[in-house]
Design a protein that fits this description.
Low-confidence stretches: none
CATH superfamily: HUPs
Radius of gyration: 16 Å
CATH class: Alpha Beta
Number of helices: 6
Shape: globular
Structural class: alpha/beta
CATH topology: Rossmann fold
Helix content: 25-40%
Number of domains: 1
Length: 145
């Protein structure tokens, strides 16, 4: 039976850490669907997105481990509302995502989605494994260091 994996994130300024996360997520099953955060969600939770949700979806969708990339719901709608459409067997969390596995597990259980496994994948041990780190390095180099 085919195992469906769901991964989610902002994916603003794609980098090696994103690729590693998606490779790890894909290794958990047969089909990987990636939910790219809606622009309004990025604004609410992190920062003004550098690239639009549609461009981020296209970029993520073009990555080798990804079978399907979709834009997530706006912040007023729960991430859980997209699950019946995607039908994942596994939700793969990135090593640095702030989501608590227990909280997600409880929310899934409350919705009767007890069959979905929640799994945190390993991080990349490279120096520049995050968008903020990359931006900081660019600024640092731009200041002549």
């Amino acid at each position: 039976m085919m195992k469906r994996v769901l991964a989610a994130g902002v994916f603003d300024l794609l980098h090696a850490g994103h690729l590693h996360y998606l490779e790890q997520a894909k290794s958990l099953g047969d089909h990987l669907t990636v939910v790219v955060a809606h622009d309004d969600t990025v604004r609410q939770r992190k920062h003004e997105p550098v690239t639009s949700q549609e461009l981020r979806r296209r970029m993520v969708g073009g990555m080798k481990p990804v079978d399907v990339a979709v834009v997530g719901n706006p912040p007023a709608i729960s991430i859980y509302d997209i699950l019946p459409e995607i039908k994942p067997d596994i939700i793969a969390l990135g090593f640095d995502q702030e989501h608590a596995e227990e909280s997600i597990r409880r929310s899934l259980d409350e919705r009767g989605l007890t069959h979905i496994e929640v799994c945190r994948v390993e991080g990349l041990t490279e120096d520049l494994d995050g968008t903020r780190k990359i931006i900081a390095r660019i600024i640092e180099r731009g200041n002549g260091e």
